[in-house]
Design goal:
The protein has 522 residues and is mainly beta. It is built from three helices and 21 strands. The strands form seven sheets. Strands 8, 9, 10 and 11 form a four-stranded antiparallel β-sheet that branches. Strand 16 (368-382) and strand 17 (390-404) form a beta hairpin. The longest helix has 7 residues, at 464-470.
Length: 522
């Protein structure tokens, strides 16, 4: 006789692939005709953004752009002309990775890890940029779990609590933040914007069904030149708060969510104020918002069952599941000293400090998750020494962050992201600058495992009178190591209650090897 088990369908998302690769982008940046020749390169920066992804024939093709920004000292003999110039360029990149077939949701992120530059001649420079590409591919997965048996089936049941880990969303959405920023009255009016750094810091995020409300702040640092009363450089900072609501399927209030912002591109133009002076900057920032959300489905499932009055046969099926070991955010404060090397001009005033963390290793050791990498710090400063008006300095500092996760055996999948919450500095002396950087890490540890789920149950027809006649009237059983009361009751097709009553036991969990038990008939 087949028992009509109570079953439930559970929809999950299965991580089918997680891989990363590095693409080297190499190209020449040519000075525009309207710009003067290069005498010295002060700073060259690069950011990467994915523009398309296409899956065909088991290959995922990712294309994108690398945006180049260069700050340089021009060759000029005119004292009143600009002493610093900038230029921009854009390179394309493409990469292909093997990808499983089928219905997949694919998440792709790109970030620049290393930048090298060199002058070819006064109107051309070469750039080499290492772009790291991270790909996650998810497939929908349906599993069937048994969550009970009919009340009239006459079966003894053992239930188990399970936690099913599910990644509900992993998407990138673009945001455009547009604003007019004004030059403070204490600053001179703009002749030319030389450098604009925009850093997006996330604020509180609110999850709703299939929606998320994002909050954050744009930190804007602007370096520009002015020709009022002779040539001079000016620096100013602004903050722009923003709020956006995005539609993302799979989000719910109970989800854990990680949001990261990447500034993909910045567009700006100088405008005149009501007095006709160039003191307003119209800025438009393209932000890539990466939203990753997960949930843990807690449920009670049928772990085992048997009939005291008949032989029971169960069918089981194996499924691959994920167990969440650890997930969440944590912070690390990094404090380092930058000393100006010999031969470089001493620091007189600092225009701008920015930091970029790059993760090089994620590993589980001794009950902790370690995230290691390097923090690249970019320092732009002015000095009364030397021929150039400003000088740049880049230093890299190693960091290590440890998160306690407890005992974790077997193969695990690790995920880690890092972002900069804030950067500040103190000018200690002519040759030292103390940098303080607060980093936020979002990490997860997932253990894949195989689980047997009950799929069917059958009871065999038996002759109860014949079984009663052949069954021994008294069974004495000596408890073996690792025995449980459930195992013993099932083996002799009796019940917990009868064994405990016959042996005057109060706690079914307190068994010890060698203990003598009387096993009554069911």
């Amino acid at each position: 006789m087949t028992i009509d088990l109570e079953k439930k369908q559970v929809s999950l998302s299965e991580l089918k692939m997680s891989t990363s690769s590095v693409v080297m982008v190499d190209g020449d940046v040519i000075v525009p005709d309207v710009k003067p020749d290069i005498r010295e390169i002060l700073l060259a920066e690069a950011t990467a953004a994915v523009t398309s992804k296409e899956l065909a024939g088991g290959k995922l093709t990712v294309t994108g752009n690398v945006m180049i920004k260069v700050l340089y000292v021009p060759e000029t003999e005119n004292e009143n002309s600009s002493k610093v110039k900038n230029m921009t360029a854009k390179f394309e990149f493409k990469d292909s990775v093997d990808c499983p077939s089928g219905e997949l949701a694919i998440s792709v992120k790109a970030v620049t890890e290393h930048v090298e530059f060199s002058m070819i001649h006064s109107r051309k420079m070469n750039m080499k940029v290492a772009v790291a590409i991270k790909v996650n591919a998810y497939a929908p997965k349906e599993i069937t779990v048994c969550c009970g048996v009919p009340a009239d089936a006459g079966l003894e049941t053992k239930m188990a609590n399970v936690s099913l880990y599910d990644i509900t969303a992993d998407e990138q959405k673009d945001l455009i933040i547009a604003e007019n920023i004004e030059i403070p009255s204490s600053k001179l009016e703009i002749d030319e914007i030389l450098k604009m750094d925009v850093h997006a810091v996330k604020g509180d995020c609110k999850l709703m069904n299939n929606k998320i409300m994002l909050k954050g702040t744009l930190h804007i640092s602007t370096l520009y030149s002015s020709i009022i009363d002779g040539y001079s450089l000016e620096h100013m900072e602004h903050e722009i708060p923003f709020t956006e609501v995005l539609d993302i399927d799979g989000l719910a209030e109970e989800c854990l969510c990680n949001v990261q912002y990447d500034v993909k591109d910045v567009f700006y133009a100088v405008k005149e104020d009501v007095n006709g002076e160039p003191r307003i900057i119209a800025i438009e920032v393209l932000i890539g918002a990466s939203v990753a959300a997960s949930r843990t489905v807690e449920m009670e499932i049928l772990d085992d069952c048997y009939s005291p009055s008949a032989k029971t046969r169960m069918g089981k099926s194996k499924v691959q599941l994920n167990e969440l070991i650890n997930e969440g955010s944590s912070q690390l404060a990094v404090k380092e000293i930058i000393s100006v090397p010999e031969g470089m001009p001493a620091v007189d005033a600092i225009y701008n400090v920015s930091a970029k963390p790059i993760i090089s290793e994620t590993a589980v050791e001794d009950g902790k998750l370690y995230v290691r990498g390097n923090l690249a710090v970019f320092l732009l400063y002015v000095s009364k020494e030397g021929e150039t008006p400003i000088t740049s300095l880049v230093e890299e500092f190693p960091f290590e962050h440890a998160i306690g996760i407890g005992e974790c055996s077997g193969k695990v999948m690790l995920g880690s992201d890092v972002s900069v919450l804030s950067t500040s500095f103190t000018f200690n002396a002519a040759s030292e600058v103390e940098i303080r950087c607060n980093l936020e890490f979002y990490t997860k540890v997932i253990r894949p495992y195989e689980m047997e789920l009950i799929s069917e149950c059958e009871m065999e027809e038996t002759n109860e009178e014949e079984e009663q006649e052949t069954a021994p009237r008294l069974i004495i059983y000596f408890v073996q190591p690792d025995d449980t009361m459930w195992d013993i009751a099932k083996r002799y097709r009796t019940t917990f209650g009868k064994i405990m009553a016959a042996n005057q036991l109060e706690d079914a969990g307190k068994l010890f090897p060698g203990q003598k038990l009387l096993i009554p008939r069911a």
